[in-house]
């Protein structure tokens, strides 16, 4: 699962990306790896893991992870090939969701590409480039389908839908929120893989003074919140600079720092968790002496497919799953004690795995 960090130059993308990858490297045992300088693997904060790991005296604790990609280079005119232009846009096409960083902090030492701080204008600049790029894709697809549409019912149906999406984009709206009329349309729409159909989190990069009350006094942040509401997106007030400082501290210092700022957790932790949910993901857990681990699945995944995340043999030979909620397990102190109370269930092929299930799979090899 990949999230792309986008935004205009100088809004704090790299600062945020660096703090994400640094925090990921330090706060978890996960062997943080840099795939390339612009891609970082980040652990999803999950306090359940430590507790379970302690219970089982696990040698290793492995969190779920998501990938962040720092996508630099979007400027006005990118869809026309300005800056890194099309290369940038194709990088975005590969991500599952977007973190759009918007500058809401004032700092005369940091130049703004358009002269002054204006979050809504910035968002619209970027979104317009994404819309242009999507329109190009639509036009290409329309040209292709239009030929067959006279003879072929399916293509005629697709064409009608494409025209509706095109109209929407030409109105300056994002593709996300477009209502498909049936499953065929949904399929056509998905296959387009439009940039503006991807879920977005707006990361409002605020100054330190705006952190404690979550940007409530910052008119720019408020404007972004209004905008996001219309498009069904989420907004987080974050201070990239502070996050970078926090990411350099050890656990104890970090806690003190956060307490001083009146915060429960770092902005990054909030952001990572929100991204995870935005992608429709959740974790089930496995625990034993060797390892306690969180596994990422999509919400609605059934037991055999969840088993397949661990090993394809587990899915093929799936017999049943022994399931206990992590809270029940922790409260009772052992699997045996939880079992005695009837809190451990045997579930079959149709069981839909729940967030926080601790599972032991039974399977044939
Ligand atoms: P990018 O071009 O979007 O990747 O922006 P950078 O992360 O390189 O940040 C541009 C400049 O803004 C750098 O000098 C950062 O130190 C500064 N900066 C980033 N975040 C903040 C912030 O939250 N507050 C302030 N005052 N400066 C910031």
TrEMBL record:
Cellular component GO terms, alphabetical: cytoplasm
Record domain TGS: where: 280-363
Swiss-Prot/TrEMBL keywords: ATP-binding, Magnesium, Metal-binding, Nucleotide-binding
Top-level taxon of the source organism: Bacteria
One Pfam family per UniProt: YchF-GTPase_C
GO molecular function, one term: ATP hydrolysis activity
Cofactors (names): Mg(2+)
Domain spans labelled OBG-type G: 1-258
Sequence positions that bind ATP: 10-15
Job of this protein: ATPase that binds to both the 70S ribosome and the 50S ribosomal subunit in a nucleotide-independent manner.
Family under the similarity heading: Belongs to the TRAFAC class OBG-HflX-like GTPase superfamily. OBG GTPase family. YchF/OLA1 subfamily.
Name of this protein: Ribosome-binding ATPase YchF
Gene: ychF
């Amino acid at each position: 699962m990949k999230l792309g960090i986008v935004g205009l130059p100088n809004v704090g993308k790299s600062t945020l990306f660096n703090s994400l990858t640094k925090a990921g490297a330090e706060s978890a045992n996960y062997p943080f790896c840099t795939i390339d300088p612009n891609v970082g693997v980040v652990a999803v904060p999950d306090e359940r893991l430590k507790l379970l790991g302690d219970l089982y005296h696990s040698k290793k604790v492995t969190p779920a992870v998501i990938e962040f990609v720092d996508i630099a280079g979007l400027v006005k005119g990118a869809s026309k090939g300005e800056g890194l232009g099309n290369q940038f846009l194709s990088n975005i096409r590969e991500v599952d969701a977007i973190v759009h960083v918007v500058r809401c902090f004032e700092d005369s030492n940091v130049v703004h590409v358009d002269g002054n701080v204006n979050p809504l204008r910035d968002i619209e600049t970027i979104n317009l480039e994404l819309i242009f790029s999507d329109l190009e894709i639509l036009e290409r697809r329309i040209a292709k389908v239009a030929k067959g549409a006279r003879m072929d019912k399916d293509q005629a149906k697709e064409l009608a839908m494409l025209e509706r999406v095109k109209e929407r984009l030409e109105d300056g709206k994002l593709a996300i929120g477009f209502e498909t009329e049936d499953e065929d349309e949904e399929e056509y729409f998905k296959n387009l893989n439009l940039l503006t159909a991807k879920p977005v989190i707006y990361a409002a990069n605020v100054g330190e003074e705006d952190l404690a009350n979550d940007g409530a006094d910052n008119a720019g942040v408020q404007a972004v919140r209004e905008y996001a509401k219309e498009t069904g997106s989420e907004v987080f007030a974050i201070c990239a600079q502070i996050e970078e400082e926090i990411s350099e501290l050890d656990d104890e210092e970090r806690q003190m720092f956060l307490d001083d700022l009146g915060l429960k957790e770092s902005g990054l932790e909030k952001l990572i968790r929100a991204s995870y949910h935005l992608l429709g993901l959740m974790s089930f857990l496995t625990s034993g002496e060797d390892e306690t681990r969180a596994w990422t699945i999509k919400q609605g995944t059934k037991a055999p497919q969840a088993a397949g995340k661990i090993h394809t043999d587990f899915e093929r030979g799936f017999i049943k799953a022994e399931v206990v909620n992590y809270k029940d397990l922790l409260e009772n102190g052992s699997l045996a004690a939880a079992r005695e109370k009837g809190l451990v269930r045997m579930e079959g092929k149709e069981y839909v795995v729940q967030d926080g299930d601790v599972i032991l799979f039974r399977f044939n090899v």
